[in-house]
Amino acid sequence: MQRRALLQNTALASLGLLSVGQHAWAAVGDASTPSPKRLVVIFLRGAVDGLNIVVPYADSGYYSARSSIAIARPGSDGGALDLDGQFGLHPALAPLMPFWQSGKLAFVHASGSNDGTRSHFDAQDFMESGTPGRKSTPDGWLNRLLGNLPTKPGYTTPPTRAVSVGAVLPRIYAGSNPVANIANGQGATKPTLLDRPAIGSAFDKLYNKDDKLSAAYQASKQAHAEVMESLDGHSMGGTMQAEMQAANNGAPLPNGFPDDAARLATLMRSDPRVQLAFMALGGWDTHANQGAGKGQLANRLSPLGQGLGALATRLGPVLDDTVVVVMSEFGRTVRENGNGGTDHGHGNVMWLLGGPIAGGKVHGRWPGLTPSSLYEGRDLAVTTDFRQVLAEVIQQHLSLPDERVQNIFPGFPRAARSGTGVMRT
Amino acid sequence: MPVLKLLHLSPLGLLLTLLSAGTAFAQSSTQPEALHAVNRMSFGPAPGEVARVMQIGVDRYVDEQLNPERLSNPRQLSQQLDSLHTTRLSQDDLIAQYREAQQAAKKDKDIGKDERRDMVQTMTLESGEARLLRALQSPRQLEEVMVDFWFNHFNVFSGKGLDRMLVENYEREAIRPYAMGKFRDLLGATAHHPAMLFYLDNWLSVAPGYHASRRKPTIAKSSGLNENYAREVMELHTLGVDGGYSQTDVTQLARMLTGWTINPRKGRGDSAFYFDATKHDRGTKNWLGRTVSDRGQAEGEWALDVLAAAPATAHHISYKLAQYFVSDTPPAALVDRLAKRFQETNGDIRAVLNTLLTSSEFRDPKVYSAKFKTPYRYLLSSVRASGLPVTSVRPLLATAYQLGMPLYGCQTPDGYKNTEEAWLNPDAITRRVNFAVAFASGKLPFARPMDNTGDGARGIKREMKKAEDGKYNPDWASPPVDTDALLVTVAGSISPATLATINQSEPRLRAALVLGSPDFMHH
User: Fold this and answer.
1) A125, A329, B185, B283 — which has fewest CB within 10 A?
2) What is the pLDDT of residues B15-34, one digit of tens each?
3) Which of B430, B460, B503, B514 to mutate to test the interface with A (most CBs of A within 10 A)?
4) In the prediction, which pLDDT does B8 show?
5) Structure confidence at residue A322 (pLDDT)
6) Do A203 and B516 touch (CB under 8 A)?
């Protein structure tokens, strides 16, 4: 973290960033969106250990398989935070408990892909294309969703209708519909050399063609202008700044995910045009020394919990129109390996956060951890297809008709779907 | 430097050189041919390079680059590399230093922490210098290109503990010496290197039921199998994900590789690799349809033989090479020919590259400028094209980080991709443009003197702090990029339409517009 911050600051300084007049460009597009509903997807790359996140503490198979890394039962030192008498939350995720209590947080356990691959790369690819087992799908499901979102007469899709946080565009957004990406860290909100009118207009003339590079350049410039405008508080008459500071309680947020999540929330709150957002976090591939209530995994979960908490809090009233989905490519082995870690498994847990969620509940059918109920004798089985959960969110929350859901998850016909009830009705 | 002298040729002189190159030598090449070869086989044209290749012809250039041992480094580069200290340390030394810092941290938290941070920063800086100074200046450009290719193929992540200390050694001992050698040697060297053993956890993998004796201090608690390396060596390094193996094969190979671990005191010579027979699973395995009886370390060595010789491996490597050098979607016929060559020569990388670089598919004008540069290549090609001397690579390390491609910073074992799909996105373009403007206008501290000696580490920390505040010695700024010289160097890379637009803009912005143009994003 130290190095990251240092390098980033060095980089910014070394690039000679200087202030220019605000609002070099007026934001473009029709400000009134066809729908106020939003979806945020957070992908945990590397296969997070879902059994240590939503802990099946009432299942005796759990403790017998994990002698050194199990999360203790609720009530004991470093124990899980009880959810429903069957499952408990990892203690590092304590910042999320208020959302559980207010019915805005739910989980779907034993969920995942019906494809059995234990390759990170294939499994991520399948979850991002939305077509498990089919590698030839050229685009990602979030991009297809963008193309299928409801529209209205006279509406021009703004470049920030779908945003991605991070320096590279993920597979889930691959496709023909334009997506803006904004940088991690404070880079997103600082003026750049390209913001200087003379430099900007000279480059505009080079990037005015009808091709991918020009489209990318233009999208980036517009997104940057919008982000700058949203985050400097002007569009909210300055109240955003004050609110951000209040939410901070004066304390600066730690670097990394909590910071980026808070920034995203601010952007979404002040810019109603942002309907889809995506972020990814790595570092979950805990083959060795993952720890239990404390340790490596706990150290990764802690900023994740803080960040999700900051995201939900800062969205404020917008949280009532927002669904946040947290997912990972597959789960990890039920049994801990010889190195205090876990290897690549199968079923995992999906997290759902937001006002429209049927919260305070662990959804999905729990298959149990007895040897005979395990997938291939070693992993948590999948009883809910991840596409089922996403399809329900898309259909009910984003109001997409069934035939459009079909476009987003081809090969997952309605007949194969059965409701899980994750959305409040 | 003869290369720089070409810069001073008058336009007429250069024109004559170009014309004569087209007629006087039977094997000379046209500008587009030479430019394409230089674009793909190096990190982009440096001053005079395309003209030189036109003159000697692409075939001789290929031959020259395939035999890097015949090319020696320019004196400045040798001196710069000689001034690095950590790049002489052995695996044992590096691991010992890491342990010492850990011990110091136990004794005194604050001092230990400082020492460790200094050490880590020195390593980060020198590892970056060892890689980037070569990539910028070495005449053995194809070798540097292959180091990039193979490092990503056999990726390790410097952010994982001990590997911060070891990435440079890994590249020096396991990658670079075999970059154009035999694939089996490369596979073996990476498999035995502590950076890989640590990164993919094989050093921890032991026979089920193994328990370390209590008297012997052990490096880590390990009492079972870890299948991380066994999986990735098949999926990523050799057979490929569809190479025809199962989960059972992963587990069986992991069992065969138990006992392959790190022990600096017991390894041979300076190598920290150690086969610990007490940790080896002595049971019978069944791997890829073969029965494997107990043969200790030889089981793993034999497994690497089998993997290196498998047809799926030949195809997997060939596909990746063709994608890297020819196009994001490489022609199947070329891949098949490369795979055949790979098998005929028992994985002779030089032979496969020769087939590739002399193929009609590689030379096809349709693939000229068809590749979108990775951030790494974009930065290197900009600096090379400028012809400016570089003494500090810090601005490159910092910008590569911003562009989402920190050097040695790919967390996942599949390494960085080199396709347009992976790197073309809105933010990337404007960030590249911002770099081009800062660099071309002489705002980046590329001319900062190298100083990694003595208590240089502390110095680095102070400098970092100052840089955070946007302050650096004005003497460290590189001069602005000379537009006319730049246009000669990259001639052919920029389309007439782009050039016309650039020529209508303010003169002070022109070099930035060249380096930040859509045309220069491709190669």
Assistant:
1) B283
2) 545 554 444 445 899 999 99
3) B430
4) 47
5) 97
6) yes
- Which chain B residues are closer than 8 Å to A199 by Cβ? 437, 509, 512
From A83's Cα to the closest Cα of chain B, the distance in A is 32
For chain B, how many residues are written? 523
**B226 neighbourhood in chain A, CB within 8 Å:** 287-288, 337-339, 341, 343
Q: Find which of A66, A115, A135, A213 to mutate to test the B interface (most B CBs within 10 Å of its CB).
A: A213
Q: Report yes or no: B446 and B481 within 8 Å, Cβ to Cβ.
A: no
Instruction: List the end-to-end C-alpha distance of chain B, in Å, as a whole number.
Output: 26
Residue A20 sits at φ, ψ, to 5 deg, of -130, 175
| Percent of residues, chain B, with pLDDT higher than 90 | 71
Helix (H, G, I), strand (E, B) or coil at A108: strand
Band of pLDDT at residue B120, cut at 50, 70 and 90: confident
Residue A191 exposed, middle or buried by CB count within 10 Å (0-12, 13-18, 19+): middle
CA angle A92-A98-A104, nearest 5°? 110
Residue B77 CB: number of other CB atoms within 10 A?
Answer: 16
What pairing do the DSSP bridges indicate for beta strands A322-328 and A348-353?
antiparallel
DSSP category for residue A335: S
Which residues are bridge partners to A362 per DSSP?
A107
Sort out which chain B residues have CB atoms less than 8 A from A216's CB and list them: 424-426, 428-429
CB pairs under 8 A between A and B: 207
- Give helix then strand counts, H and E, for chain B: 27, 4
Nearest CA of chain A to the CA of B63: how many Å? Answer: 35
Who has greater pLDDT, B62 or A137?
A: B62
Q: State the Cα–Cα distance between residues B491 and A409, nearest whole angstrom.
A: 47
Of B337, B336, B329, nearest to B355 by C-alpha is: B337
Residue B292: closest CA among B259, B257, B242, B261: B257
B384-419 residue pLDDT tens: 999 999 999 988 998 898 888 999 999 889 999 999
The rounded mean pLDDT for chain A is 85
**ipTM of the complex, rounded to two decimals:** 0.88
Instruction: Compute the residue count for chain A.
Output: 425
For B425, the closest of A169, A198, A205 (CB atoms) is A169
Nearest to B522, CA basis, from B401, B425, B406, B420: B420
Between CA A51 and CA A331 the distance in angstroms is 8
